[in-house]
């Protein structure tokens, strides 16, 4: 069949910097497939986006939105509903409500929750399809190949292997997922993906930060160096009824991935009001859907005459005791049970502290307990408790800093001690002073775990400082001893204020309790206004002499060890 001429877009401009003050930004999670309840991998995606969203707000970087939701069309859902003895709309309504509940309980600060079954989304998809058609990006042709229902896509022979089942029968399966594939032949609408290969390569060469972290950027470049066949983007309606019909062709249903990807536009009011936000968008996605977001989605946008999203942040998966999560193994982890077991902040901290985007990370109960107890309950909570204890700080105030005890020096490595502070005290103060910029840099590069690693190290250094000088041994009645005692407490509380401020995107409830205990007002909690130890630099400290907030008890209670090895998802 003859293909209509394709109008290619103009060359693309480099994406604008994300650092400019006052600019708008859409942060998005993937929309999650509504064929089963949420597990910790889904929550991890949402928490990564949430932490970026919260951090941006605390920096005062400008208006931002965080979108998430559920992907509710496709053959997989049609089959899951039939197996459950219900209708696709009823199944999707139930599963979507679970995702909404899971993200709400996990304190994900989403501003938009989109369901692809909503009229606003269906209208946006139809308009997007028409734009593709009008610009000559589509043609109708016969397509045949190995189709994977579980992954809602055709797979090339190079991505398949053979597997023998328990009955001795041989099946073709996906190399990456292990899902079975079936040979399918049908007449579909085709998207001329091959026409965009050069443009996609140019886009990535001109925007080396478009896909982060670097290994995933390189993976996409490798894909674009291979053959890029045209893409089937519809299914016969007789095979797939649960989906959006192709406009002006009731025999075809729009391919679920085209439908799903348009959600990033429909949440912004496409086609009427999306221009107020788009293309200032950062997508957070799992590595398993990287090709859809870094190859198909940009090509579709080019074909529709739209600009490309600024950045795509990619993360890896969670295993359970070294094994991939699966229903058959019974090791799918229930996020609701995790929040109950570890608290919301405890589980948020674990996932963001231990999750490394470049590689798969492993979950097991003992690991969560160890990390959370060590870094939140003992190190952070213990430091707050010790520095505000009545025996150490009987006036319950933010005490004064003494420049005599802790004088400013140009180079602590080459200066003999002038006051009571030692060289290692200066080293630790320098480390804490640089912390906000280091944390911001790691957030910008999608390395949230490294930001938390830096904070945890500084917390340990502060505990070392406190322990080294033993303020409980100092005599408050001795004027010189009191000056040094108050200075030790002042420095410690300043450190805690910095940590509480920087931890707000990750453990919002615990950070709020910490900052409230230090009497830090809501308007004083912005990262953009964060200063550390101004008295050391000869500037006034607004907290000095201030009465501390009420004692709310232990900041974070230690988790008990459990004999239970995992928290299985009972909602399957």
Automatic annotation (TrEMBL):
UniProt xrefs under SUPFAM superfamilies: Anticodon-binding domain of a subclass of class I aminoacyl-tRNA synthetases, Nucleotidylyl transferase
Key words of the record: Aminoacyl-tRNA synthetase, ATP-binding, Ligase, Mitochondrion, Nucleotide-binding, Protein biosynthesis, Transit peptide
EC number in record: 6.1.1.10
Record-annotated Methionyl-tRNA synthetase anticodon-binding domain positions: 439-521
Catalytic activity: tRNA(Met) + L-methionine + ATP = L-methionyl-tRNA(Met) + AMP + diphosphate
Record-annotated Methionyl/Leucyl tRNA synthetase domain positions: 26-387
Subcellular location: Mitochondrion matrix
Enzyme class (EC, first level): ligase
Example of a GO cellular component annotation carried by this entry: mitochondrial matrix
GO biological processes: methionyl-tRNA aminoacylation
InterPro entries recorded: Anticodon_Met, Met-tRNA_synth, Met-tRNA_synth_2, Methionyl/Leucyl_tRNA_Synth, MetRS_core, Rossmann-like_a/b/a_fold, tRNAsynth_Ia_anticodon-bd
Pfam families in UniProt: Anticodon_3 (PF19303), tRNA-synt_1g (PF09334)
MF annotations from Gene Ontology: ATP binding; methionine-tRNA ligase activity
Predominant place of localization: mitochondrion
Family the entry assigns: Belongs to the class-I aminoacyl-tRNA synthetase family.
Official protein name in the record: Methionine--tRNA ligase, mitochondrial
């Amino acid at each position: 069949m003859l293909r209509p001429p394709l109008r290619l877009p103009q060359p693309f401009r480099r994406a604008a910097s994300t650092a400019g003050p006052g600019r708008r930004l859409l942060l998005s999670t993937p929309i999650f497939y509504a064929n089963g309840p949420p597990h910790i991998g889904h929550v991890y995606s949402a928490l990564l986006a949430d932490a970026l969203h919260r951090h941006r707000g605390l920096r005062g970087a400008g208006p931002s939105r965080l979108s998430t939701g559920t992907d509710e069309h496709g053959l997989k859902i049609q089959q899951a509903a039939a197996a459950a003895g219900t209708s696709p709309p009823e199944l999707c309504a139930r599963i979507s409500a679970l995702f909404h509940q899971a993200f709400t309980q996990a304190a994900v600060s989403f501003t938009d929750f989109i369901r692809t079954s909503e009229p606003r989304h269906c209208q946006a998809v139809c308009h997007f399809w028409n734009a593709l058609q009008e610009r000559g990006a589509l043609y109708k042709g016969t397509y045949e190949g190995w189709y994977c229902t579980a992954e809602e896509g055709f797979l090339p022979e190079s991505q398949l292997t053979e597997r023998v089942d328990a009955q001795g029968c041989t099946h073709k399966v996906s190399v990456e997922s292990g899902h079975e594939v079936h040979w399918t032949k049908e007449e579909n609408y085709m998207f001329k993906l091959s026409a965009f290969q050069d443009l996609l390569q140019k886009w990535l060469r001109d925007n080396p930060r478009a896909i982060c972290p670097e290994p995933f950027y390189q993976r996409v470049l490798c894909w674009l160096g291979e053959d890029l066949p045209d893409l089937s983007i519809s299914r016969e309606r007789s095979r797939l009824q649960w989906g959006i019909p192709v406009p002006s062709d009731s025999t075809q249903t729009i391919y679920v991935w085209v439908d799903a990807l348009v959600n990033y536009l429909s949440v912004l009011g496409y086609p009427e009001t999306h221009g107020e936000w788009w293309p200032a968008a950062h997508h957070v996605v799992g590595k398993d859907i990287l090709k859809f977001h870094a190859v198909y989605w940009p090509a579709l946008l080019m074909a529709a005459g739209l600009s490309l999203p600024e950045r795509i942040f990619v993360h890896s998966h969670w295993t359970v005791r070294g094994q991939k999560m699966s229903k058959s193994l019974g090791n799918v982890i229930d996020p609701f049970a995790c929040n109950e077991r570890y608290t919301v902040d405890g589980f948020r901290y674990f996932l963001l502290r231990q999750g490394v985007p470049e590689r798969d990370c492993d979950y097991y109960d003992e690991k969560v307990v160890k990390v959370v107890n060590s870094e939140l309950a003992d190190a952070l909570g213990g430091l707050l408790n010790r520095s505000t204890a009545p025996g150490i700080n009987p006036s319950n105030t933010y005490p004064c800093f003494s420049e005599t005890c802790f004088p400013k020096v140009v180079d602590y490595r080459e200066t003999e001690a002038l006051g009571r502070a030692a060289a290692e005290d200066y080293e630790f103060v320098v480390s804490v002073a640089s912390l906000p910029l280091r944390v911001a840099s790691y957030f910008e590069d999608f390395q949230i775990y490294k930001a938390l690693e830096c904070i945890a190290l500084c917390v340990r250094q502060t505990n070392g400082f406190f322990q080294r000088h033993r303020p409980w041994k100092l005599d408050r009645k001795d004027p010189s001893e009191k000056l040094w005692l108050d200075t030790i407490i002042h420095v410690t509380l300043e450190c805690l204020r910095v940590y509480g401020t920087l931890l707000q995107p990750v453990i919002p409830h615990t950070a709020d309790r910490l900052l409230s205990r230090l009497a830090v007002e809501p308007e004083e909690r912005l990262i953009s206004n964060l200063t550390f130890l101004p008295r050391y630099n000869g500037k006034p400290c607004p907290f000095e002499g201030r009465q501390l907030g009420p004692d709310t008890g232990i900041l974070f209670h230690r988790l008990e060890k459990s004999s239970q090895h995992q928290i299985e998802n009972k909602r399957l």
